[in-house]
């Protein structure tokens, strides 16, 4: 009887040990799977980091090229303006050099029109102010 009881206890303990071993094997397999997943993520993160650095370098390079082109464009614009100004000047012998460029005259006309418009607006504003002052003075006199 004691021997049977001991056999049953040994069998129960053996089953528990087998279950624990099975459970630990399962956990070990999960751990290894997680480790593989982490390694895969590390590789992916590293690839994305390299890609981001590559894109940043490309963007910096393009920005530098854009800045160089902008400076080049400004330089060409200045040269074009200088050439245009030179082309618009005509020598008139004894009378020296006189500017008769159409573009210059057009710009002057636009400027004068703008000045005239501002003067008209200023006059209108002054008239409105004088009307208001006049009405205020009349109201003060009436009181």
Can you put this structure into words, describing what you see?
The protein has about 140 residues and is mainly alpha-helical. The protein has two domains: about 1-100; about 100-143. It has helices at about 1-90, 100-140, and strands spanning about 90, 95-100. It has a two-stranded antiparallel ribbon with strand order 1-2. The protein is elongated. The chain starts with a helix and ends with a helix.
Please mark out the parts with pLDDT under 50 across 5 or more consecutive residues, or reply none.
Answer: none
- How would you describe the oligomerization state of the chains in this entry? single chain
N- to C-terminal distance: 129 Å
Largest sheet: 2 strands, antiparallel
Helix content: over 70%
Count every beta strand, where a strand is a DSSP E run of 2 or more residues: 2
Q: Count of DSSP helices?
A: 2
Coiled coil: 2-133
Keywords: Coiled coil
């Amino acid at each position: 009887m004691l021997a049977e009881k001991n056999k049953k206890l040994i069998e129960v303990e053996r089953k528990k040990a087998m279950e624990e071993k099975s459970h630990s094997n399962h956990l070990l397999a999960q751990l290894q799977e997680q480790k593989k997943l982490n390694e895969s993520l590390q590789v992916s993160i590293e690839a994305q980091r390299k890609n981001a650095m590559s894109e940043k370098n490309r963007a910096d390079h393009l920005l530098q090229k854009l800045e160089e082109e902008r400076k080049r464009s400004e330089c060409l614009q200045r040269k074009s303006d200088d050439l245009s100004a030179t082309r618009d000047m005509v020598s008139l012998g004894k009378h020296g050099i006189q500017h008769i460029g159409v573009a210059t005259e057009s710009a002057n006309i636009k400027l004068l029109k703008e000045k005239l418009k501002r003067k008209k607006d200023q006059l209108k504003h002054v008239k409105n102010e004088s009307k208001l002052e006049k009405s205020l003075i009349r109201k003060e006199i009436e009181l």
